[in-house]
Design a protein that fits this description.
The structure holds two protein chains of two kinds.
Chain A (H helix, E strand, L loop, with lengths): L1 H48 L5 E4 L12 E10 L2 E12 L4 E9 L4 E8 L16 E3 L4 E2 L26 H24 L5
Chain B lengths: L1 H9 L14 H7 L3 H24 L9 H23 L1 H7 L10 H11 L4 H31 L1 E2 L2 E2 L14 H24 L12
Antiparallel strand pairs in B: 1-2
The chains are: A alpha+beta, B mainly alpha.
Chain lengths: 199, 211
């Protein structure tokens, strides 16, 4: 009895270690590629939001979130020749299914520069349209869901169905994303005013 | 030789994992909202089932009866994690779109079922053919469903607008209830194909010799 238990345990351990070795090999090959992919994605995303900037510094620790459900993952102060252009905030919060991650850029003058959806796992064809560059909440003016925030004042109410247009049949997604953008913008403008920027 | 062909063809229609055995449905209904997801999921799933059946069949004499299920899960989970890592590294966009459904291949009943019912008893070539057949059977239903759902529910195929701009997408098809309806249609289609198949000269008897 004891003997067979040991035998089974050892066989199981052998299979498990075999699988671990195989996984370690694959991880070692793909790990660096995944890392550079993520870095490249971050760099292009930051460049995309502040194309004129020539440097950025990590200020994640200085930006607390005012909502426990929404997490500020990273924040970067975007600079050009040493002067502050604005703040880019990467924040994650709950949406319709799973967390959504957004990257928002906030100008020193307290307006939103750009919003990008980095990750969303909501229903394709509905909530996921938030990240679709050819889905327009305003079909006539060809404004996308995130596009409508461009130039919006941080101090605006950010009320869904009032000053924020919703994605059809995806009120929950629209509301959650708006909340994430609002929290990011508030945190960023607090940082900017603390640094002596124009409020 | 004849038997190996029969084993391969089995999974396509007569014992289609989705439409006849009806296992692994949750992910099938969830990812078929767009064609790209359908193709990605089928490829990932086919790779995992072929690799797992191959390894398990090769080691079948070394796997003790009483701990076979944990060993199967270790092997399946290892291959699934590899697929996940490779997709993250080389196809980041697809990996983002598939989200949680790639890791969930581990608990896909099709793989567990085929490994337990077939690969753990059969020699390697037959196990691989069975896996390929099952994978292809899964693929055609999944891709077919996603084409119907994306076309009717969004007016596009692979993200390219196919129907005219004036077409008002029937959102119903992208939503879960639409998934069930389309799936039911594919079950009927497959039953029709199965009937035709068994009547045709191609119709081969069950390779297990029973039923």
């Amino acid at each position: 009895m004891i003997k067979s238990m040991f035998r089974l345990g050892i066989i199981l351990a052998l299979f498990a270690s075999g699988a671990c070795v195989a996984l370690a090999v694959v991880y070692n090959i793909t790990g660096p590629v995944i890392k550079t992919q993520e870095e490249r994605a971050l760099n292009t995303a930051l460049k995309d939001i502040f194309p004129e900037s020539d440097g950025f510094s990590d200020i994640t620790k200085e930006l607390p979130s005012s909502d426990p459900k929404i997490q500020i993952l990273n924040a970067y102060a975007m600079t050009k020749g040493g002067s502050l252009l604005g703040v880019a905030v990467k924040a994650s919060g709950p949406s319709y299914s799973g967390n959504a991650i957004l990257l928002s850029g906030i100008n020193v003058d307290g307006t939103i520069k750009h919003v990008r959806v980095l990750q969303i796992s909501d229903t394709p064809g509905l909530g996921a349209n938030a990240a679709n560059p050819s889905y327009y909440v305003d079909k006539a003016k060809k404004i996308t869901f995130t596009g409508q925030f461009e130039g919006k004042k941080v101090t605006d109410p950010f009320k869904v169905k009032e000053d924020v247009q919703v994605i059809t049949a995806s009120t929950i997604t629209s509301r959650s994303l708006t909340a994430i953008i609002k929290i990011s913008a508030d945190a960023a403008s607090a940082y900017i005013s603390q640094k002596g920027g124009v409020k | 030789m004849k038997r190996s062909i029969a084993v391969f063809l089995q999974g396509l229609v007569i014992e289609n994992p989705l439409a006849i055995i009806m296992i692994g449905l949750c992910s099938a209904l969830a990812v078929t909202t767009s064609v790209a997801n359908g193709i990605g999921m089928s490829l990932a799933m086919t790779f995992v089932i072929v690799a797992s059946e191959l390894i398990i069949s090769a080691f079948r004499k070394l796997i003790p009866e009483s701990v076979r299920i944990p060993i199967f899960i270790i092997i399946i989970a290892a291959f699934t994690t590899m697929v996940d890592l490779v997709m993250k590294a080389y196809f980041p966009d697809l990996s983002k779109a598939m989200g949680v459904f790639i890791p969930l291949i581990v608990v896909n009943c099709i793989i567990m079922g085929r490994v337990e019912a077939f690969a753990s008893k059969e020699p390697v070539p037959h196990a691989v053919l069975d896996a390929l057949g099952m994978g292809l059977g899964y693929t055609w239903v999944l891709v077919g469903m996603s084409v119907v759902r994306e076309l009717l529910g969004n007016g596009t195929i692979l993200g390219i607008q196919v129907l005219p701009e004036s077409y008002q997408p029937i959102l119903f098809f992208v939503l879960p209830p639409g998934g069930f309806l389309v799936f039911a249609l594919f079950i009927s289609l497959n039953l029709f194909l199965k009937k035709k198949w068994l009547e045709s000269p191609l119709g081969c008897p069950d390779p297990e010799g029973g039923n």
